[in-house]
Amino acid sequence: MNDSNNTVSQIALLKQKLGSAKIALEGINNEHNGKLEQLIHFIGQLSLACKGQNLELDNKLAKLRHRLHNFDSIDEALPELLSIEKLLQSQYRQTMTQLEESRGSLSTLIGQIQRINSAPEKLKKEINYFKQELTKPFHTVWDYIPKMEAMIRFYEQILHDELLQSDHYEILPHHVQLARELATEISEIEFRKDQRDQVLVLKEVLQGDISLDILLESYHTVLSLLLENIAHEKSASQDFLYALNDALTVVRDVVNSSHNNNQRSNQIKQQLNKEINLRVNNADCILVDVNNSTELKVQLTSQLSALKEALSRKEALEQREQNILKKSIDSMRKELNNITQEANSYKEKLFEHQKLNLLDPLTQLANRTALEDRMEQEYRNHIRFKTPLWIAITDIDHFKSVNDSFGHTTGDKTLQVIAMALKNSLRESEFVARYGGEEFVLLLPDVNEEHISQLLNRVREKIKNIPFRFKNQRITVTLSIGAAQVMDHESIEDTFERADAALYRAKSNGRDRIVIDL
Ligand SMILES: Nc1nc2c(ncn2[C@@H]2O[C@H](COP(=O)(O)OP(=O)(O)OP(=O)(O)O)[C@@H](O)[C@H]2O)c(=O)[nH]1
């Protein structure tokens, strides 16, 4: 009995212990689950922080977050964790490679920035220090971003300094060259009288010390002057067309009204003719019908006076018609005279313009366009009549030193004097043009080979003997001349090139001489 009592009490004790162990286990489970839940929450947050690095990883992490949210399906998430782990490893390697590459790019960029000469010294030092910093590897993106920001700052500062100095852009040799070319080009354009002073000033400016601003302003001025000219030309042609139109309208009105008058007169004339015919017929009838001579006389007298009256109306009508016609013709003649006058003045203007377009404004010699025309014409004559034709190209020696020592205005005057002297030293049939700058081209037809040297030397001597006096200093200006004769089957362009090459030889052989390409 005792034994069974003991057993019962031991079982009760064991039950009690089991109960408390169960409670303790539940407590442990709860605590474990609480920590697991915290861990899962943490994984969820961590996965969110990884978002945006890799699309596949993002998708997998989103799925994982969803699974982990549902506590019961944690087991299903376990295999996915494995693949996410692999992805994370590869992502890490990729990120590190990318960071290394970015560091390399930053080093290259900073090298380029360092080569910008205009950067201030202080900044250059900072950049140097930064360059050393860049030799250390990046561990995270957060190492990269501030470096990138620093780079942008350097760049910004250099740009800022450059912009501050932009008012004083350096003038480069090719800007000076452009200015000189613009000066030469505007010398070759014909401007209106009221624009010429402005153009002269502009030319002087372009040939002096120039800044970029002045060069741009000059381009703007030239463009405005040209546009002004175009507008002027346009309005002149418009005026002429309007005048022409007005005159034609008057003529058309006159023709119309005389046509209408004519029609009306024709109707009246027909009426009158009918009446006259009727009177004559009546007279015929009277002659047949009436026997009594007195009555015949009365009736005939009445018919004749009606006929007379009809005839005088017809005469008056014709007179009026003639007057109207005369008036119309007079007014048309007046209008036609007006148009002719208008057209003549327009033609003259065009002709003047054409002529001016072919003249070099500074020297009043033929310009390059005129030279090309004349060359063609002389070449045609040479082919047709088999007469000799020479081209001589002449260039003033050391002309730059005239400009440099005495100024461009003196240079211009010198060009004018030489141009006149060249023109005066040639025959009527010979031709000289300013080819550009200080270069002139002579076309010499009908000159034999044995006379060409003599002719060109005479020209050269003539220029050499001009007593130029600049700033009270006696200056001798000399020419170098290269010449060539058009050969059989040779184009005029080829002859020109040979003459140019001869000029080059004259220059390199010491200047103040002629060289003839034979
Ligand atoms: N005053 C003035 N100078 C001009 C004009 N056109 C060109 N020039 C100048 O002519 C000079 C030509 O100089 P270069 O081509 O160096 O020749 P150069 O000094 O004559 O020397 P060589 O030809 O070698 O003997 C430049 O200084 C031009 O500015 C112009 O219309 N007026």
Automatic annotation (TrEMBL):
Reaction it catalyzes: 2 GTP = 3',3'-c-di-GMP + 2 diphosphate
Entry EC number(s): 2.7.7.65
InterPro entries: DGCcoil (IPR048516), Diguanylate_Cyclase (IPR050469), GGDEF_dom (IPR000160), Nucleotide_cyclase (IPR029787), Rev_trsase/Diguanyl_cyclase (IPR043128)
Presence of keyword Coiled coil: yes
Organism domain of life: Bacteria
Domain GGDEF: 387-518
UniProtKB keywords: Coiled coil
CDD domains in the cross-refs: GGDEF
Coiled coil ranges: 297-356
Pfam families: DGCcoil, GGDEF
Keyword Coiled coil: yes
Name of protein: diguanylate cyclase
Source organism (scientific name): Shewanella intestini
